[in-house]
Structure formats: C-alpha cells, structure tokens
Amino acid sequence: MQIQQLQVAYDARADRLLLRIATAQREGINVLLTRRLIKALWPGLQRMLNSHLAKAAPGMPVAKPKDAAEPGSFQAPFDDNNLSHPLGAEPLLATESRLEPIEGPLCRVMLGETRARQVSFDCDQNLMQALCAMIRGTVAKAEWDLSLDKLPLPDAATPTPSDVPPTVH
Hints:
It contains 2 helices and 7 strands; from the N terminus they run βββαββββα. Helices cover 20% and strands 27% of the residues. Helix 1 packs antiparallel against helix 2. The strands form 2 sheets. A 4-stranded mixed beta sheet has the order 1-2-3-4. It is of the alpha+beta class and 169 residues long.
C-alpha cells in the first residue's frame, strides 16, 4: 500500500486513538488503538526508530518504502473524500501488533484483530518519526496519564526477530 496520508485522532466516545490511513489508490483504513496497545507498542516503535531505522549512513539518502509519501504537513486536513474501504467502513480494533525490521532500513508495522482483519505498512525513519509524533501528541490530548517519554525503552541493540515485541493481546 502506498501511504498518501496518516492521521491519529482521539475518539473520546470510544476512549481510543483512531489511526486513519489514506493510500494513493484512494483506499481508507481506520484502526482503533487502545491505551493498553499503545503502552505495549511504544517501546518497540522507539527501539525501531532509534536502532534499525537510524542505520542510514550520514549524508546518504534513506531508501523510501514504496508506501511512504513525501514528508507532509501536520496542518493539512485529512482528505477522506471518495475513499473506498477495503477492510470495511467500521474501524478495526487493533488487539495485536507486530514490528519487523526489513531491508532499507525500513520497518513493517502490522496491526490487527485476533484472527481477523489486519493492516500492515512499511515505514522509513521519516514516516516513523511522524507517526510517533502524532501518537505522542494525541495521547497527551486524550489525558490517558501515559507519559510515553518515561516508558522504559529496550536496549538499543539492533532488533532481530526475537527482539521484536511479541504480539499484543
């Protein structure tokens, strides 16, 4: 999937974060993220950002994943006009997550329901930084009393499949 736009917003009614993904193919995917999932996923996102995705040599261009758009603006409104919804109109409730380092350096983020719908997308360092910034800002607005900067980080060793956080239920 070629990501055109990402947005993380707080859904006060459900007390969840809503990750909205729009693709260049005009597909929309909505994922609800719980406080519990964010708390478990955050250290892995930070480890991936600070180790595997930070491997690009200084001055060398970072390989863009095929699903990463050019850096965008946090001020641009999310464009949901005429999006099809291949996973259905109702957001999927992410009960599982997985991060995998891949060549590039890139990272694959997988979010899904137990034995049901799932979405995966690849991030380079820029897209991961933007995603983490949106999550951090939205968690603060949600008033979840979850200080993401104070969550313990795993060591900064290069992640291997055994280092990747297990599936979160």
